[in-house]
Amino acid sequence: MIRHVPALVLALTLALCWAVPARAEALDDAISAYAAGNHAAALAVIEPAARRGAARAQAILGDAYDTGRGKPQSARLAREWLEKAAGQGSAQARFDLGLMLLEGRENVAPDPARARALFEAAMRQGYAAAFDARGRMMLEGSAGPADPVGAAALLTTALELGHAPAGIALARIYLDGEGVAPDAARARRYLGRAAQLGDGAALRRLGAMHEAGQGGPGDLAAAFVLYQEAVNLGDVPAAVELARFMQAHDGYWRDPPLAYAYCLWAAAQAADDARVEAHAETCRALGAEMTQDQRKEGRRLLQQF
Prior knowledge:
Elements: H1 7-35, H2 39-51, H3 55-67, H4 75-87, H5 91-103, H6 112-124, H7 128-140, H8 148-160, H9 165-176, H10 184-196, H11 200-212, H12 220-232, H13 236-248, H14 256-269, H15 273-288, H16 292-302
Helix pairs in contact: 1-2, 2-3, 3-4, 3-5, 4-5, 5-6, 6-7, 7-8, 8-9, 9-10, 10-11, 11-12, 12-13, 13-14, 13-15, 14-15, 14-16
C-alpha cells in the first residue's frame, strides 16, 4: 500500500533541505566579509550561527572578542567561544586559543603547556600556522627545552604548507646562526619562498639581501623591484627602504622627489609613535640632501599616493 506524505510535511521537509545549504553559503560569505574587514556586518550573520553551534562561526566570534574587531574586547568571552569551537575540533580555534594562552591576556594567565597541546592538536589537522607557532616555542625554549634544529624543521613544514611568516623566521635562524650553522644562501632561499607567497616583509628582506649581495650575488635592479613589490603589498617599512635605496644608488631608479614622497607616506602610515618618529627622522635625512624644490615636488607627489 502506498502511503501519501501529507503536503504540509513534504513542504516543511523541502524547506529545511533548501535552508541548510543556503545558511551554510551565507556563513561562508560572512566569514569572507569578516576577513575583508567588514566586521560588524559579517558578525550579524556569524554570531547567530555561533549560538546555533557552528564551530567555524564560534572561532570567528572568539577572534572578534579577542581583537576587538566588531566586538568590544573581552578576553573572557573570547576564551569562552574559542573553547567551544576547539572542543568541536576547529583547528583555527585551537590555534587562536593556543596563542591566547601562550601570550596571556587580561585575567587570562599564560599557560604554555596548554598552548603547546593546542598547537600540536592543530598540527595534526595540518594547520600551517600551528607548525609555525610550535616551532617558535621550540626556538625560545617555551614549555620545553630549546631545540633550534627541531624548530627549523617545524618552520620548514609551515612554509611548505604556505605560511609565509615561517620563511622569515627561518631566514633569521640561518642568518644569525641560532643553534645552526650560519647559512646566508639558505636564508635567501627561504625568503624567496616566502616572497613567492606574497609576503611584503619577506620581499623587503629579500630586497635587502640582493642590495647587499648577501647569500648570493648583488643585484640592485632586483632589489629595486622587490622593494617596490613590498610597498605595493602594503609593507610600510619597505617604503622607507625604497626611499633610501633610490637616494643611495645611482641608476634609472634615482628620483629624489619620489623617494621623499615614499618616505613621507611611510611616516604617515606607521602604526605607532616610535615608528612614526623613526621614519620621520629618515625623511629629514633624505630631505637634507635635496633642494627645496625637490622637497616641494615630493610633497606634491605624496598627494597622488
